[in-house]
Amino acid sequence: MKLILTEEEQFLKDTAKSFAEERSPITHFRSLRDMSDPMLWDKNIWDEMSKLGWPGIMIPEEFGGSNFGLSGICVVLQECAKTLTPSPLFATGVLGAYAINNYGTKEQKEKYLPLMTNGKLTTSVAVDESSHHNPNDTLLIAKKSADEFILSGKKTFVIDGTSSDLLIVLARTSGEKGDSTGLTLFLIDPNSDGIDRIKLEMADSRNYANIIFDNVKISSNNILGDIEAGGEAIDDILDIGRIAISAEMLGNSEAAFETTLDYLKQRKQFGALIGSFQALQHRAAEMFCEIELTKSSVIAAMRAADERSNDVQRLSSLAKTVAGETLHLVSNEAIQMHGGIGVTDEYDIGFFLKRARVAEQIFGSAKFHTERYANLSGF
């Protein structure tokens, strides 16, 4: 397994870097936040991403995609993260594309994948129901009634939940809270009767929602995958998502580190540049080493996913743990080295701290994944 990018991946990474710097710098993110737009991403930027083919990177060519794999979209997410570019690329281009392509019927693929490739349809995956990530704790009930199901319950912290055109919802068709069996995935129109989407105000100024399901009627044709096989399917889908969000967190860490290095080279204290102080040099060196370690962890997980390795679960948890701990460290140190001004709105570095605290929790914290890694390793 090579822990370096291929020539094609590097080209895609360079393209994403240029796009992010030119079309969606941090000033653009700041303007979206200040507008208080409930969608919190720019439709024009999303249209440009779609023209570049990014939503279709993981979608087969027969549906208009490029079938580049997870590695391709991860390098794009990594570069866009450096300018904090908000878009539906993660929820749609990774989670939605992978879920429908791998578990959808022929009809579902033909209906949704071409629209997703063109950026005309966005998706959200609704999994969690509390502040702690654990898909097995699902209590949203899907009760069978003739040729349909009636869903009642809630989902929390749904990424892009306020604006998505299609919901992929994990529901319980049998069993009890904590059971890994008895779970089923459904494709649901968010405009269906009985659905209420409540926008969440989060520190990172992104698009999240809590969603209430009140006797929502869904046809049996809208089941994604096999009935009561949703537990295994959602684990697979989430592992792909965990690797992708780890790549994004890596990009956040790299940008926060570079911003801090620039500050160390400019800020003077006691008549000297603070970057000349050995204590700060040591702390910067530690950040650099942790970022390099994170790169290796993320690339290893990407490669495992694209090669369909049996080690994807362990490596996805490893990547999410390492990326989360690194971003936590780098965002903290960045603020400390900037001093009090780092937490003011005048400087951009505070945005990375806010993004870090939210991203660390997406699909499982470092604590969750440390325990999962240990269990998968037989400890």
What is this structure's SSE topology?
Layout: H1 7-23, H2 26-35, H3 43-51, H4 70-81, H5 89-103, H6 106-117, E1 123-126, E2 141-145, E3 148-159, E4 166-172, E5 183-188, E6 195-199, E7 208-219, E8 223-224, H7 230-264, E9 268-269, E10 272-273, H8 278-306, H9 312-338, H10 349-359, H11 366-376
Parallel strand pairs: 1-4
Antiparallel strand pairs: 2-3, 3-7, 4-5, 5-8, 6-7, 9-10
**CATH class category of the largest domain:** Mainly Alpha
Topology as a string of helices (H) and strands (E): HHHHHHEEEEEEEEHEEHHHH
Rg over CA atoms: 21 Å
**Can you give the helix content as a percent range?**
40-55%
CATH architecture of the largest domain: Up-down Bundle
Please give the count of helices. Answer: 11
Largest beta-sheet characterization: 4 strands, mixed
Per CATH, the superfamily of the largest domain is Butyryl-CoA Dehydrogenase, subunit A, domain 3
Task: Return the average pLDDT rounded to an integer.
Answer: 96
Compute the number of strand runs: 10
Structural class based on helices, strands and sheet pairing: alpha+beta
Strand content: 15-25%
How far apart are the termini? Answer: 25 Å
When the domains are counted, the total is 3
Q: Which strand order spans the largest sheet, edge to edge or round the barrel? A: 1-4-5-8
Examine the coordinates and then state which fold CATH places here, giving the name of the CATH topology of the largest domain: Butyryl-CoA Dehydrogenase, subunit A, domain 3
- Poorly predicted regions: none
From the spread of the alpha carbons, the general shape counts as globular
